[in-house]
Amino acid sequence: MDSSMTIAEAHDKLAHREVSSTELVQACIDRIEKVDGTLNAVVYRNFDKALDQAKKVDSAGKFDHPLTGIPYLVKDVYCEEGVQTTACSNVLREKNYIPPFDSTTSKRLKAVGAISIGKTNTDEFTMGASTETSCYGVTRNPWDTTRVAGGSSGGSAAGVAAGEGIFALGTDTGGSIRQPAAFCGITGLRVTYGRTSRYGVMSMGSSIDTIGPLCRNVEDLCIVTQAIAGKDPLDATTGDVPVPDYRSELKKGVKGLRVGIPKEYFLEGMNAEVEASVKAATEVFKKLGATVIDISLPHTKYATATYYVICPCAVSSNMARYDGIRYGHTADKPQNLLEYYECVRSTGFGAEVKRRIMIGTYALSAGYVDQYYRQAQKVRTLIKKDFDDAFRTVDVIVSPVSPTPAFTIGAHDANPIDMYLEDIFLTSQVMAGIPALSVPCGFSKAQGSVPALPLGLQIMGAQWQEATILRAAHAYEQATEWHMKKPVL
């Protein structure tokens, strides 16, 4: 049984009774047991429950929805009733936190018969760009296990790339779906802020967090997004806007589509192979009938700095709930309440979470909130205006996902700022609240012991225009073969 099928392929086999859901789930379980000792992508295994659900699906014998009977992986920040959820932090892991409810996304997938088989590794509370800050240890890239899978949805990306699940759920606050998707050679979608519900997903930055899928191709992104998108009364930030039929939109192609190339995303000194692969992708769009237009997004250079003020401020607020009183990590024999808090948070949180709490608390403190936080929000408005202006003349914008292929594990240990700069092409979309995706667009050249590594193309669209960027990505994907390549483990 091939556990590296797409959703569409697996659904076709299920509908024609060529395979059963139980066999498909078991194939993913077998794959996890075979390769995850190397990758460390799956941190909690929900196998028995998944097999029980698969048997019920097979017994019912109805595969009316494309996701019915399809096994998937879930980033370890999504709450699932009765399933351990830790955000890969010792604050929750030590006390074995088990949510008493489902996230809205989990509930919607469960309603159509999709089957969750395990939780995937993530940077602690999604804070990081490499999945190196997890309390469970780093996830390794299936293309080269000396390199990171990206972050913070690195476990989800590696799991899909390695065939451990048919698709996976991730979160994207500052690029945490798009970057690991690019590093692992799969597709990943950051939706418009408010397109999907964040209810039941542990927060990092409440005004910038989004949740979405990581899949093997663009059609699969459409299938999952269709199932999970839409207004949710439990999340007031979800938009009351129609959800298009994304798969039907793919048929329109890109003839006449206006594709913008922002000069600010091609930096002096960036990896030559990354630059060449993106420029080659623009030539593909031209051949498909699209018009390529040079544009400018002048405030892009401020996006990463702005993000790393706004995000830590949200972290400072959101992490306050993990105090060891209501749930989570506890301290032994403190002398007083202050000492209890100090002990719980200093031993429960890792270095990156502490760093962001400190930065955010400082930026929000009396005397500095105007200087940092409010100024960052003003710049955020300018970044959004850049995109609003650009989308009056173009339909989509393309750029690299990352300035380099996947970097080696430990490469940025000595300097956190270098790690933050990995997000240089991924934070401006966050500030503007627009959708963007990553699709494979090439490979670096193998050099000695370093194998060829996947490279990603980023496609951005205007607010609520997921259908347009999915259509563009699908057309590019159909004209190339990068997405068909699989790692050998």
Describe this structure in words.
This protein has 489 residues and is of the alpha/beta class. The protein has a domain of 303 residues: Amidase signature (AS) enzymes (Alpha-Beta Complex), CATH 3.90.1300.10. Helices cover 38% and strands 14% of the residues. The strands form two sheets. Strands 1-3-2-6-8-7-12-13-11-9-10 form an eleven-stranded mixed beta sheet, sandwiched between helices. The protein has a two-stranded antiparallel ribbon with strand order 4-5. A hairpin with a 2-residue loop joins strand 4 and strand 5. It is globular and about 70 Å long.
Question: Which terms would index this structure?
Answer:
13 strands, 11-stranded mixed sheet, 38% helix, alpha/beta, two-stranded antiparallel ribbon, Amidase signature (AS) enzymes
> Quaternary state, please?
single chain
Helices, by number, come to: 17
Strand order of the largest sheet: 1-3-2-6-8-7-12-13-11-9-10
Percent strand: 5-15%
Summarize the amount of helix as a percent range.
Answer: 25-40%
Spatial gap, N to C terminus: 16 Å
Name of the CATH first level of the domain at 7-253 and 429-484: Alpha Beta
Ranges where pLDDT stays below 50 over 5 or more residues in a row are none
| Helix and strand sequence | HHEHEHHEEEHEHEEHHEHEHHHHEHHEEH
CATH topology of the domain at 7-253 and 429-484: Amidase signature (AS) enzymes
Give a quick precis of the structure:
With 489 residues, the protein is α/β, with parallel strands linked by helices. It is built from 17 helices and 13 strands.
